[in-house]
TrEMBL record:
Family named by the database record: In the N-terminal section; belongs to the PRA-CH family. In the C-terminal section; belongs to the PRA-PH family.
Domain Phosphoribosyl-AMP cyclohydrolase: 33-106
Predominant location category: cytoplasm
Enzyme's top EC category: hydrolase
Catalytic reactions on record: 1-(5-phospho-beta-D-ribosyl)-ATP + H2O = 1-(5-phospho-beta-D-ribosyl)-5'-AMP + diphosphate + H(+); 1-(5-phospho-beta-D-ribosyl)-5'-AMP + H2O = 1-(5-phospho-beta-D-ribosyl)-5-[(5-phospho-beta-D-ribosylamino)methylideneamino]imidazole-4-carboxamide
SUPFAM superfamilies named in the record: all-alpha NTP pyrophosphatases (SSF101386), HisI-like (SSF141734)
Gene3D superfamilies linked: MazG-like, Phosphoribosyl-AMP cyclohydrolase
Name this polypeptide is given: Histidine biosynthesis bifunctional protein HisIE
Protein's cellular compartments: Cytoplasm
Keyword ATP-binding: yes
Gene: hisI
Length: 204
């Protein structure tokens, strides 16, 4: 893990006192964006735990999300074997790309990262409280209704399983996962916490 004390060992001469920085989702592994950091930008990234680049266009430090509020919260910073590139594992608070996409590298998107996108949509609908949105309406009906929907979908997937209906198993599993994400957001738990919990259990 890089710290403010050991960044001097990086190969700053390779790119004229800059170092390439890759932002990677700390759970899915998806590459979100790329840029260059000056020593000051890297220090800011480490100290504030917010992905910060040096903008050559603006000639100043640029904190990703300073305008959109879609910050990249830093979880871990590692370097490559030659100490001339850094990989920053981050947790995004919204879409990363200025085109309102989850990642700046759309074609490199892992299929399972869609769950994280869906989670972002659910968070947004929770805040919006729109009558036209199924998700918003479900939140407005309260936790008992959300729990009821998860229970209903659980029963339906059991029925599909016992009937050995593969198509229905897929459809009902999708419904269950969707409503489980809503349930988790109703108590402010991100799906990443579930993945990390499973990962930690696998080491036991």
């Amino acid at each position: 893990m890089l710290t403010c004390k050991n960044i001097k060992f990086l190969n700053w001469k390779q790119y004229m006192n800059m170092i390439p920085a890759i932002a990677q989702h700390y759970i899915s592994g998806e590459i979100l964006m790329f840029g260059y950091m000056s020593p000051e930008a890297l220090n800011n990234t480490i100290e504030r735990k917010l992905f910060t680049l040096f903008s050559r266009k603006k000639n100043r430090l640029w904190v990703k999300g300073e305008n959109s509020k879609n910050f990249l919260h830093v979880k871990k910073i590692i370097t490559d074997c030659d100490y001339d590139v850094i990989l920053v594992k981050v947790k995004p608070s919204g879409n990363t790309c200025h085109l309102n996409r989850f990642s700046c590298f759309k074609s490199a998107e892992p299929i399972y990262s869609f769950i994280l996108k869906l989670q972002s949509i659910i968070k947004l609908r929770k805040k919006e409280n729109s009558k036209k949105s199924y998700i918003s309406n479900l939140f407005s009906l309260g936790n008992h209704r959300i729990a009821q929907k998860v229970g209903e979908e659980s029963i339906e997937i059991i029925i599909a399983f016992l009937e050995k209906n593969s198509v229905n198993i897929i459809n009902e599993s999708s419904d269950l996962l969707f409503h489980l994400l809503i349930l988790l957001q109703s108590v402010n738990i991100d799906f990443e916490s579930i993945i990390l919990n499973l990962k930690n259990r696998s080491h036991k």
